[in-house]
Amino acid sequence: MGLLDETVSVPRRTMTLFFLIDTSGSMEGNKIGAVNDAVVNVLPMLNDISETNPDAEIKVAALEFSNGVNWLYDEPKLAKDFIWQDVVASGLTSLGAACSELASKLSRSGGFMQSASGSFAPAIILLSDGGPTDDYNSGLAKLKANNWFKSAIKIAIAIGDDADKDVLKEFTGSSEAVITVHNIDALKQIIRVVAVTSSQIGSKSSTAGEITKQEQVVKDIQDATQNIDGAETSDSTSTIDSSQYIDDWG
Amino acid sequence: MIESYSFSCQGESHKADNKPCQDASFHAVYENGLAIAVVCDGHGGERYFRSDVGSRMATEVILDTVRTFVENIDKNLFISKPFTAQEAITSEEVVKKQTPIDVAFRQLFSSIIYQWNQKIAEHAANTTISEWEQQHVDPKYINELSTSETFEKIYGCTLMAYAQTSDYWFAFHLGDGKCISFQEDPLWMEPIPWDDRCFLNKTTSICDSGAINEFRYCYQGDGHFPMAVFLGSDGIDDSFGEIENLVNFYIQVIKMLVNDGREETVKSIEKELPQLSAIGSKDDMSVAFIYNLNALQTHIVEFIQYQIKLVTDKVQTTDKRIKQLTQKLDYLEDAGTDNEKDKIEAAYARQDIERANEERNKLLFKHEALMQQLSLSLSKELHKNGEAK
């Protein structure tokens, strides 16, 4: 008999990547089309990261919010199993309800999370092109009191100049973690960069040096953003002047 | 007969980074009956570049201070006291309501912090920057050693200890990792209260400014002693996820001690903990434990029965899931819609049923193996009882 024989379970550690997608009416057309296209294309990349990563497997969960909120599936799926169902845009922007719903799932009891031992902090990507139309403050307050959320990697993608960047900054905790995109190509590229970078860093056992995973993800995304035409960050050292970009969603 | 053991090994991720093992552990049983086990886990991260030294020194200090505590304290303070556990202190009001035992523990913890600070200050003053430190550590952290008033962060670690005398036992903990005790009822528990501030990669630490209030502890002096107490650094519990898996692993250790003896068990731990790090948390691994072999031998059947119950419960949970998934699939197939979402949900349900059945088969295999172990243990017990008659 060995200590690690057939009666002992050593499960793989898990990191869950959450997509929070604004599917309000203003996203209709090319914006929502680009989101659907980009997420479909990034899922195989997430699977590659998960399969080749000895530290953890990656699961994916997606929540769409407009007049209400809706999880694409009732539990996180392995990246290789996640079949993307195109989301459709219409209605308002219930970001507050989305925050409350996310807070309820960032827990073990009735939520999506497992024991903190054996888990990595989740990565959360919020995409929005407007401002909340509900009471987002109470939803965000619930989320901010959640230990999983406090530890999570949080990145927001502001789709166009109409996105309420102050709200997105509040969500992520820093303006550096908010990336603004001004055209379809930039939106697709940034979704890929943010999802891949968050998953790569978030599912590793350790970070390089003293900086947190959040800081490392933000730094890598900012570096990548400099090479994407139509995307910008709030990094004060960035050479890109946001005034150079005009929204082009044609 | 009370015995003890401890082992620490370098984590898989530390091998890749050429970092030393930052854990330290210790165990001993002394002639006066004091048995002690200690695990300290030095923090990872570049700033804590001498945490391997910090954890080693914390282990030494705990040993010294606990021995002094046991030699000097009036044992009547503990006698007849039932199991009592104290959480970390978050309010000064709690300090005001302390019992004499709480005051004694607070003095012990204060001594640990004080002596640890003295030791690391001495080390910092007398140890030049090594070649490894020059190559691997950001100069801003190296400078903290001479300029910062908070240089103790560089040596930061968690700590956990269990001690028992012939009259009473106690355990204390600051930071993460897990302490599991085994006794008759309940068969296992975490005797030291958890601190919710220890979550994912965040932990309380001896290098915190309010470390004295972050100690949690427990004690008992009414004649009841655990059969075994295991202390494990977070590298171990992170490898198992759910705590039941960790407990199951320690039961494996207990079974091996009883069936194969100490020597084989030690060999197996020292061979398999590095493997566990490679397939699990990748972190440094430390375990220290105190055990009463006679008590474990007497109760070995209960340990196997517990494992069987654990597997049986999992089979039942899996069966429930298969039933729910089958109902969902039947519903979707009966509806026969062309809806794309329903088709995807049906495909998921089929896939999940298949996986659940695979899981169920593995569990049944485990169940069979455990039933054989139970049968063997019961036969041994019958044989032993027969011989005794």
Indicate the multimeric state. heterodimer
Gyration radius from CA atoms of chain A, angstroms? 18 Å
Helix content of chain A: 25-40%
Strand residue percentage of chain B: 15-25%
Number of spatially distinct domains of chain B: 2
Number of strands of chain B: 11
Q: How many domains make up the coordinates of chain A?
A: 1
The percent range for helix content of chain B is 40-55%
Number of strands of chain A: 8
What is the N-to-C succession of helices and strands of chain B?
EHEEHEHHHHEEEEEEHHHEHHH
Which architecture of the largest domain in chain B does the CATH hierarchy give at level 2?
A: 4-Layer Sandwich
Helix/sheet category of chain A: alpha/beta
Name of the level-1 CATH class of the largest domain in chain B: Alpha Beta
Estimate the strand proportion of chain A.
15-25%
Report on the architecture of this protein.
The complex is a heterodimer of chains A (250) and B (389). Chain A has helices at residues 30-52, 95-105, 136-144, 147-151, 165-172, 184-202, 213-225; strands spanning 14-22, 57-65, 69-71, 77-78, 123-128, 153-159, 178-181, 231-233. With 250 residues, chain A is an alpha/beta fold. Chain A has one domain (14-239): von Willebrand factor, type A domain (Rossmann fold, 3-Layer(aba) Sandwich). In chain A, helix 1 (30-52) runs parallel beside helix 6 (184-202), helix 2 runs parallel beside helix 3 (136-144) and helix 6 packs antiparallel against helix 7 (213-225). The longest helix of chain A is centred in the first third of the chain and has 23 residues, at 30-52. The N and C termini of chain A lie far apart (67 Å). With 389 residues, chain B is of the alpha+beta class. Chain B contains twelve helices and eleven strands. In chain B, strand 7 and strand 8 form a beta hairpin. In chain B, helix 2 runs antiparallel to helix 4 (100-126), helix 8 packs antiparallel against helix 9 (262-279) and helix 8 packs antiparallel against helix 11. The longest helix of chain B is centred in the C-terminal third of the chain and has 49 residues, at 340-388. The two termini of chain B are 24 Å apart. The relative contact order of chain B is 0.14. The A-B interface holds A 1-11, 13, 54-55, 73, 77, 81, 83, 85, 114-121, 147, 151, 205-206, 209-210 and B 13, 17, 44-47, 138, 141, 178, 196, 199-202, 234, 237-243, 245-246, 248-249, 252-253, 255-256, 259-260, 268-269, 272, 275-276, 279-283, 307, 311, 340-341, 344, 347-348, 351, 365-366, 369-370.
